[in-house]
Amino acid sequence: MTATAIDIDLLSSKENSSQNNASLNTNTNSVIQARNLKLRYGNKVLLDDLNLDIHSGEVTALLGPNGAGKSTLLKVLCGEVTAEFGEVSFFGQPLSSWDRATLAKHLGILPQHSALSFAFTAKEVVELGAIPLQLTSPQLKSVTQITMDYVDVKNLANRLYPTLSGGEKQRIHLARVLTQLSQAGEHCILMLDEPTSALDLAHQHHTLQIAKNMAMQGAAVIVVLHDLNLAAQYTDRMIFLKDGQIKADGTPSQVLTAEVVESLYGWPVTVHTHPKENYPYILSANHPIL
Question: What is the pTM of this model?
Fold first, then answer.
């Protein structure tokens, strides 16, 4: 199973794309700027004066132990949660000033869970991604077929969504998000919150290949992951969080070290280099029972 590259600007004409993006800052590959983000819940600090830039053409992984602030940061970056202090900008424009309908064409979010329970078919769920777009019926049919085939869910098209497994639902929503971004043009942001949590081995790799392909076409991709080896294999940048702070930030070779992993997760590991692909990977070591 291989995720052949898909055009993230599937249907929009260059004229429409340039009109939609005319007011956006294209002078930098820093797509998302987050400055001095602070957020707490009760006495717990969720984000602690956090600063971050996310770049186009890269897959950035947010990593760290449970409760580190990964999903919270993603929710603040996409506007689902508002920080108590600080600002987030997309393409040089404050997130708070974006028209939501316009933003929906450029920002796609795959959450950890979906509360959708209506008896839609899988295809109808994917078509929901086209709500922010202006597509004719033939265009909608075309883009839905393309994205479902790309995500390897074409065989599920006529299945009722509530009858699908957790992994199948996750993949259907990925196809929905890709449909939503089909007119994003060169201003594309994809956020994935634990997209491999319910997937089998093959589809874990397939999903992250899709993320990688999107970045290769110029999208800014952020993915929350727990699997450090998958992150090292598919991402360009690994950001380790703990207690709402960035503890390590760099390429997999720079930051996936035994010292970083042990200090953040409290478990001994050894780090090795893949013999063919040259990316680092970890093996867990035995830990004495306390």
Answer: 0.91
CA nearest neighbour of 187 among 114, 105, 286: 105
Token representation of residue 73: 């940061």
Give the up-direction half-sphere exposure of residue 260: CA atoms within 13 A in the CB hemisphere: 21
- Tally of residues, the chain: 290
What average pLDDT does the chain have? 90
**What is the C-alpha separation between 167 and 180, in angstroms, rounded?**
20
Strand order in the sheet with 30-41: 44-55, 30-41, 85-90, 93-94
Phi, psi (rounded to 5 degrees) for 247? -100, -25
Question: Hey, what are 235's tokens?
Answer: 């991402």
All domains of the chain in start order, with CATH: 14-284 (3.40.50.300)
What stretches in the chain show pLDDT beneath 50?
A: 11-27
One-letter amino acid at 217 equals Q
Instruction: Count Cβ atoms within 10 A of the Cβ of residue 2 and give its class: 0-12 exposed, 13-18 middle, 19 or more buried.
Output: exposed
